[in-house]
Amino acid sequence: MIYKYDATQDKCPVPLVNLRLMLRKLTSADRCLIRICDSGSKQDIPKLLAKKGFYFEQRNIDKDVVELIITTEK
Would you say residue 73 has pLDDT above 90? Predict the structure, then answer.
C-alpha cells in the first residue's frame, strides 16, 4: 500500500505528528509519500526518519516543496 500525505498546507508540528501516525501502520511492503514545504518539517522529519531507522529518498518538487518517499527497507 502507498500512504500519501500532502502536508504543504500544514505547519510544524502537524506534519510530524501525522507522519508518526502513518509510520506506525507501515509494513515492509508499504511506502509512504509525503510532501512538505514548512522549514521546520524539512529539518525535523528527515531527522526523525533517520533516528527511527526508516529509509527515504528526498526530492525537490519546486523551490518550496520537498517530497519524501519512505520505506522500512532499502
Answer: no
State pTM to two decimals: 0.92
Helices (H), 13-71: 14-25, 39-52
Kindly list the domain boundaries of the chain, sorted by start residue: 2-71
- The grid coordinates listed for 45 are 522529519
The residue among 33, 24, 28, 27 whose CA lies nearest residue 57 is: 33
Alpha carbon dihedral 42, 47, 48, 51, in 10-degree steps, equals: 170
* Superfamily of structural domain 2-71: TusA-like domain (3.30.110.40)
